[in-house]
Design goal:
CATH topology of the largest domain: Rieske Iron-sulfur Protein
Shape: globular
Distance between the termini: 70 Å
Order of helices and strands: EEEHEEHEEEEEEEEH
Radius of gyration: 22 Å
Number of domains: 3
Structural class: alpha+beta
Number of helices: 3
CATH class of the largest domain: Mainly Beta
Number of strands: 13
Largest sheet: 4 strands, antiparallel
CATH superfamily of the largest domain: Rieske [2Fe-2S] iron-sulphur domain
Helix content: 10-25%
Strand order of the largest sheet: 6-7-8-13
């Protein structure tokens, strides 16, 4: 694996699929749900790869979420005093190869009651700043359904509520509650993966609201779009 020293940071490593060897190229990090044009990230990465490496077309494209902690040191061990016997290892911040090995050794020592020199450093019960990760608002707000291209989504205000509206390729509209079912933050549309992403804690939902990635465990509730529109039209005719 090679990691560049320039900014924005890129890294490369090798891999393989059913058709043969691959060169895996990674671009700079961004926060889930806090990017207005995720597809542009792929375009910039493709341009960088063709400019700096002897590559052809991209075979695969995907995102990966890395969890981080306030001090950028993982949480490893028993998360609470009352959760005796439950061990966690998370917050590797993209450095799972080294931190994962350290976490395995630490948890093994803790289970067997042996002292470990980095137990305090990785202690998951250490306190973090109260203002850490207050999240963000949606980056997908649009004024009307006409502003949403087919095959894409956007967030539309309806009264006090916000709707996550997806327009299929044939023009049908699928409306959902835009409030993440984990903590209520308003989701953003990911125009590359075609998903609804939470800008607060990283939950990811499919275009039709199903949970793809936690911490949310419940889907985004459906909302009736056409029916509300028909009611407004009837009220207008009645006034006429």
């Amino acid at each position: 694996m090679f990691i560049g020293i320039d900014h924005p940071t890129h890294s490369i490593r090798t891999g393989r699929d059913d058709e043969g060897p691959l060169l895996i190229v990674l671009g700079p990090a961004f926060v889930t749900g806090q990017e207005g044009d995720v597809a542009a990230r792929f375009r910039l990465l493709d341009e960088w790869a063709h400019k700096n490496l002897p590559v052809r077309e991209a075979a695969w494209r995907w995102f990966n979420e890395d969890y981080d902690t306030p001090d950028r040191v993982p949480y490893v061990g028993e998360p609470e005093k009352k959760s005796k016997g439950l061990y966690i290892a998370t917050g590797f911040n993209g450095w799972g190869i080294s931190n994962g090995a350290a976490a395995g050794l630490l948890v093994s020592d803790q289970i067997q009651g042996r002292p470990n020199p980095w137990a305090k450093l990785y202690d998951p019960q250490r306190r973090g700043p109260k203002k850490y990760n207050k999240g963000d608002d949606t980056h997908s707000l649009v004024g009307s359904i006409e502003q949403i291209p087919r095959g894409q989504g956007g967030v539309i205000k309806r009264g006090k509520a916000k709707l996550a509206v997806y327009r299929t390729n044939n023009g049908r509209v699928r409306a959902l509650s835009a409030s993440c079912t984990h903590a209520g933050c308003t989701v953003s549309w990911n125009n590359a993966d075609l998903t609804w992403d939470c800008p607060c804690h990283g939950s990811i939902f499919s275009a039709i609201g199903q949970v793809i990635h936690g911490p949310a465990t419940k889907p985004l509730p459906s909302r009736k779009w056409a029916k509300g529109k028909a009611k407004r039209q009837r009220r207008k005719r009645n006034r006429d």
